[in-house]
Every structure is written in C-alpha cells, then in structure tokens.
Design a protein that fits this description.
The protein is an alpha+beta fold and 317 residues long. It folds into 3 domains: 8-85, Alpha-Beta Plaits, CATH 3.30.70; 102-164 and 226-306, 2-Layer Sandwich (Sulfite Reductase Hemoprotein, domain 1); 171-220, Alpha-Beta Plaits. 30% of the residues lie in helices and 17% in strands. The chain contains 10 helices and 11 strands. It has helices spanning 8-16, 41-54, 77-85, 116-129, 181-185, 252-269, 276-283, 285-293, 296-299, 301-306; strands at residues 19-21, 27-32, 59-61, 67-73, 102-103, 142-145, 159-168, 191-194, 197-200, 222-231, 243-244. Strand 5, helix 4 (116-129) and strand 6 form a beta-alpha-beta unit. The longest helix has 18 residues, at 252-269. It is globular and about 80 Å long. The protein binds iron/sulfur cluster (3 copies). The site of one iron/sulfur cluster has 12 residues, from loops.
Length: 317
Amino acid sequence: MATLTISAADEKRVKALGFLSNKGTDNFSGRIITVNGKITAAQQKCIAEAAEKFGNGIVTFTTRLTIEVQGIPYDKIEDFRQFIAKEGLETGGTGSLVRPVVSCKGTTCQYGLLDSFALSEEIHERFYKGYHSVKLPHKFKIAVGGCPNNCVKPDLNDLGIIGQMIPNFDEDECNGCKKCSVAAACPMKAAKMVDGILEIDKSICNNCGRCVGKCHFDALEDGTPGFKIYIGGRWGKKTAHGRALSKIFTDKEEALNVIEKAILLFREQGKTGERFAATIERLGFENVEAQLLADDLLERKQQILDAELHMTGGATC
Ligand code: SF4
Ligand code: SF4
Ligand code: SF4
C-alpha cells in the first residue's frame, strides 16, 4: 500500500471543500454540485476533461445527484476547482450544513405538478448557497418532488416538498352518472360514488390532480396548485418517514419561508449531533409544526444566525 502523506488536518480542510479521501491513497474524489441534477453539455464536457486532466478518468454519480471525479492528487485540488469554475461548477456538499438539493424531473414528467428544476434551483440558491456558512447540528437534506409519486423520496429527507393539485369539485354540477369518469381516473380510490353523487375522501386523496378535467359535466374543471411539506425524514443508519405538515401551501413564498424556518429551528433547537428527525421527536411534532407556521423564527433569524452553535456538527460524510 502507498505511503500516505496527507495530514489529518489537510484532509479535513479539503473535505470541507468537497474532496473526499480515496481510501488507502493520497488522492481525493472531488464532489461537484449539479444544483439539482441538471447540467449542460458544456459542463459535462468540462467535467470529462477535468477527470482526464486531474483525476483518474473516472466520473461517478452519487445518490444525491452530485458528480464525483476520482483520483485527484492533493496538490491538484486547487487547479481542479479553478478548471471546473470556468463552466460555473463548484465542489462541496459535505459537513453539517444544508446539503445539495435533490430534485425529480417534474418539469418534464407527464405527472409533474410543479417546475421541479426551477423550484430546486431557487432552493439551492437560497438555502444551499445562502446558508453555506451556517453551522447545523447535523446535515440537512432537502428534496423536491413534482407529484405524490415520490420518485425522489422527499419524505425520507430532513425536509421534502411535493407538488400538489387540489381538485376543485363542484358538487352542484355532479349528475351522478352511472359510470363516473372522475372515480375511474383516481389512482387512490379517493373519488367514489356515494348515494348517487361523487365524493372525494380527503383523508385518502393525495392531491395528484389526475381527476382534474375528467368530468364531462364540468363538475371538476380545475384544481388549485400547491405544495405539501414533509419534515423529519431520514435514511441511513437509522430511518424515519417524514410527516407532512397539516397545511397545503398554495403560495410558493410561504412554502419557501417554511423551509427557512425549519433550518432556523434545527439550528436553534437541535442538539449538536442529532438529525432533524430526532429534534422533532424530542420537541414533539405539534410544537415544531406550530413554530413552522408562525412568524417567530423568521423574526429572530439574525439572533439565531449570530449565536455560537454547533462548532463541530455530527455529519461524518
Ligand atoms: S415524482 Fe412525479 S413528477 Fe417527479 S418524476 Fe416521479 S412521477 Fe414525475
Ligand atoms: S363527477 Fe362528473 S362524471 Fe362523475 S358522476 Fe359527477 S357528473 Fe358524472
Ligand atoms: S386528486 Fe388524485 S387522489 Fe385526489 S381525487 Fe383526484 S385523482 Fe384521486
């Protein structure tokens, strides 16, 4: 085995920049942030070139939509960073911070209820970049899903946001057809005929919007777009399913503010080393939800950011 010459302090320093030691070697994998898994052809070419020029020619994809170039020698790290910066790319994505955002392809997907690439880019700018210097008790992962099909598993993230289409059913326009095309279109079996009239069981309906426009008699012409937010999911050594906030948000700014409040709450009330799921369990979901729906956390934003907290967080990767 090669003699290792990089000190633990240097290894830690470059890890914070997104360079992870390739075990048993003096080389590193450079983790490139793709914002939301969408990169241009020019960026792809640049990464391929950088892999040949500075690394071992191998490019790998991580489960959270970042790209790692393997085999970069320690003394080539700065050159590598400068090279990819030409195409607006940067490394990072480690530490007890807001982590790179994961998004599904809701923008182009036939089921997409929101522009997931645009929303995840906005979240990236505001919270991945905007909170990059803000230390948290542990890592904080955010995922954006275009619809309740949950392809990127938003409910297994510290915070997940999902596109919604709340069906606007007008009972007065319902003729009680023998065969209801709305009920037939509902994959959740939430829309059913009850006593000769259509009924949507709100406890089953997941606001997928598949029924919108399916009634031939104008009883369900449109829906209201919205956002559902899950908090406290995690996947790893320990697992937890996130729980949805009771409110469906129809205003994007309000939904983004809830994300900001969740990060501030985690910073202020989380114990160093615990994931958001554990913070929520300790404080109680109802307490956390009430805080996320109120204004107090944002009003105290500067005070929360200025506090000396979590100088060493719990994230190990
Ligand atoms: S979650 Fe929905 S919108 Fe996103 S990729 Fe899956 S089916 Fe498409
Ligand atoms: S919702 Fe439309 S299709 Fe379904 S029973 Fe009523 S009128 Fe008929
Ligand atoms: S929004 Fe989806 S789950 Fe709800 S009633 Fe319509 S089709 Fe069914």
